[in-house]
Automatic annotation (TrEMBL):
Domain of life, source organism: Bacteria
Protein name: Thioredoxin family protein
Amino acid sequence: MKYSVIKFSSEDCGTCHKMSHYDSKVSNELECEFINVVLQETQVYRKYRRILLKQYPNKEGMGWPTYLIVSNPEEEFTIKGEIKGGMQKGDFRSKLKAIISK
């Protein structure tokens, strides 16, 4: 099964910016599609908002950034798991690998 890693972040989030140096690379290494959704980019945000709101109906409890690991993001999607907040590259890789290999 091919998964998509959808990153929900904000332009003014320092942690989100720091993780952008490696999050897409790690996702691609693990054969996942990487989708970057910056909340200020309304057109992209609108496209993926339904996925975010399924996990966080009122956006309470989100981390910055929040990564949702999803199958079929364009259609009838299923949320496989999530990764929240900032972390080192190795930790991000381990957490993502654990989710996609379940």
